[in-house]
């Protein structure tokens, strides 16, 4: 059963692909539609604006205000008015007083922000055919989110709204029709990225071997013959070269996911994690097994009969056991050690502190540890799980290294999650179906490898009996997908009614409308709640932490959500940015 950890998400639905109407605005159309089709449960709605340009202006103003604070602090320390050049990166142009220049630029930006905010609020072209619709009960929201709204299945598409902290606002402004095209483009791009990446990986792996160095740099032969260097090249250099070559891959995959147009951070990370795992499976697991240094085995693999595939795989996998042992030590063990030391954030912090930090606010942001990063950590762990299952029956000497890795990973990540990382969002266990699917893939691959190994050991008579293993595994996956996956993507009406009944009995006077009025407003509009002269745009995302979530275990002033559900809580009033409230009975 899906965990009800966010009462707010379970009462808000995201509606997309709203059909245009020449006589009504999007806001009026949404209100009329839900008053007619959900008259007993509809509460209010907030339309989605294309406020990306306004968000850029607000970000630019924040940056200028931060520079202004830096120069004001500098005047207090030195009693001298700082001078800057107005040209490119401050390297050329006329010299001006830094404080006066930034005050002038901030005033200009404030006027531009006010003008752009009015344009976004009043221009019908800035309103996207989408809206966050809130309901009085979980039951009403569940019925709306999990049913088809009209005869035309391409209009009035409903889904559960992400938690406010989880929304990726930039992508909500993308027209729904273009999402399919974007995803097709990224699917083709990922295909070429995955399979053509084998070429540079194979080249790097070849250069990182003793034979490759002797062939391309014979003048290094005396150095290679030194026992310590020879052992290092044979043992660790290929794994280190592969790790360095893939260092920018997670960033590339996240950029691709953002281009696809997913509307929540959790969806972006899930898509990036799936592609990261597929990339690792093809390029690290299959690539190192089948390609070697010059694709000789890959060529023979392509031109041989299909019934010989298990034999080729069963022969090649044991030969790569030593490489994967070193890879586990270089990437796994060393990665866990770096996680304990927070080595990468520490280096980044010192680089930021030396080059970028100008004020205390910069230092606080530089010290923020961020979230755990499911898009990179989870696929790596799944890869080691795959290696453990595959080599359990092929080369058991790999298993101790895998077991040590998982033992260290459990201890370290448990500590990091509780004491270090911040909870960026709550997805309600949405990652688990993908994790389960990758476990099934690992099981099937290990069974195929076992069949191939037994075939090479003159035990072909037992292979037909082993065919039943992947068949049963696939059947088990289909069973689990049909039986349990709905619990992670749907919300049972019985559970919704029970929660609603309990809530009415325990807290009948809770003012849900007052909270929802501001919860799903774009952050740049929330900035209007504060004084324009103050640097309060930075509070936009922090306001979203007021969503009523399970508190994080680590008490953090910046990231821990506020206490949940204060009866009668009120919120500041906002200008009417497409917000329509249906009077409660």
UniProtKB/TrEMBL annotation:
Question: CSC1/OSCA1-like 7TM region domain location, by residue?
Answer: 182-454
Does the record carry Signal as a key word? yes
* Residues that span the membrane, as ranges: 184-208, 228-255, 276-295, 324-343, 383-413, 435-454, 461-479
Q: Cellular component per GO?
A: membrane
Q: Report keywords, A-Z.
A: Calcium, Ion channel, Ion transport, Membrane, Signal, Transmembrane, Transmembrane helix, Transport
Q: Which parts form a coiled-coil structure per UniProt?
A: none
Indicate what this protein is called per its UniProt record: Calcium permeable stress-gated cation channel 1
Question: Source organism's superkingdom?
Answer: Eukaryota
Transcription among keywords: no
Query: What range does the record give for the signal peptide?
Result: 1-17
Q: Cite the residue spans of the region called Disordered.
A: 544-585
Q: Where is the CSC1/OSCA1-like cytosolic domain?
A: 13-171
Among Pfam families, the record links this protein to:
PHM7_cyt (PF14703), RSN1_7TM (PF02714)
Q: Where is the composition biased (Polar residues)?
A: 546-573
Among the GO molecular function terms of this UniProt record, one is: calcium-activated cation channel activity
